[in-house]
Design brief:
Layout (H helix, E strand, L loop, with lengths): L3 H14 L6 E2 L13 E5 L12 E2 L7 H4 L8 H12 L7 E4 L13 H18 L6 E5 L1 H11 L2 E10 L2 E7 L5 E5 L14 H7 L5
Parallel strand pairs: 1-3, 2-4, 2-5, 5-8
Antiparallel strand pairs: 6-7, 7-8
Helix pairs in contact: 1-4, 4-5
Length: about 210
């Protein structure tokens, strides 16, 4: 189990040192889920939060943030994540949900190269500890997130198929310890679970690992 106090201090120190100004969030679920989950869902970094939500939060002890905030968030990823949970036949609170870079920002491109490196370095340290042997499936959004997880798991590409959305592909990797990693399109932009053309590709990429 990663040391919560260590990561709280690390994120706070680098926040002021490297000029992150919009807050942070590492896990969208309670910290204890690290030791309970067998599925993880990792996106790139947190965006601006809904109104009246705490800006600086290491983990969400209320439950899964996407479920808790579903009636007040403006982010389209919320509905897609909940549809993903239905697809996997899992409750949101059972999935270890978090980000590769803990610092909030409107767009990834708004961060400097140094800020991106610092944020992803923290993420790599954390997920190297959090993605233990219990985790059998990791779902990633974004190339940076996928690269971070495949590096941690020494994973190789197993399958790549068209997503059913233009020329964009879905990918599945297998780690050295048998961990499966599925890279989806970013659900804040591509509503895969609302599009009929994506149903078969999604079934195929998750085949035998749900």
């Amino acid at each position: 189990m990663p040391d919560k106090r260590k990561y709280s201090q690390m994120i706070s120190d680098d926040e002021s040192k490297y000029g992150f100004s919009h807050g942070f969030k590492l896990l969208y679920c309670p910290w204890k889920v690290i030791s309970e989950a067998d599925i993880a869902f990792i996106s790139l970094n947190p965006g601006r939060p809904p109104d009246a939500v705490q800006l600086k939060l290491l983990s969400d002890e209320r439950g899964n943030s996407y479920e808790v905030e579903k009636h007040k968030t403006k982010s389209p990823i919320t509905e897609q994540f909940l549809m993903l949970c239905d697809f996997l036949e899992r409750k949101p609170e059972s999935i270890l949900t978090g980000v590769a870079c803990p610092y909030r920002g409107d767009r990834w491109a708004d961060f400097s190269s140094e800020q991106k490196k610092v944020g992803l370095n923290i993420g790599k340290q954390f997920w190297s500890e959090a993605l233990g042997r219990r985790i059998k499936l990791v779902i990633t959004l974004g190339n940076e997130t996928t690269q971070l997880v495949t590096d941690i798991k020494s994973a190789q590409l197993e399958l790549e198929i068209n997503s059913g959305w233009g020329k964009y592909n879905l990918r599945r990797y297998r780690g050295s310890q048998g961990t499966e990693i599925v890279q989806l399109l970013h659900l804040s932009t591509f509503k895969l679970f609302s599009r009929d053309e994506c149903t078969l590709p999604l079934r195929t990429i998750f085949e035998n690992i749900r």
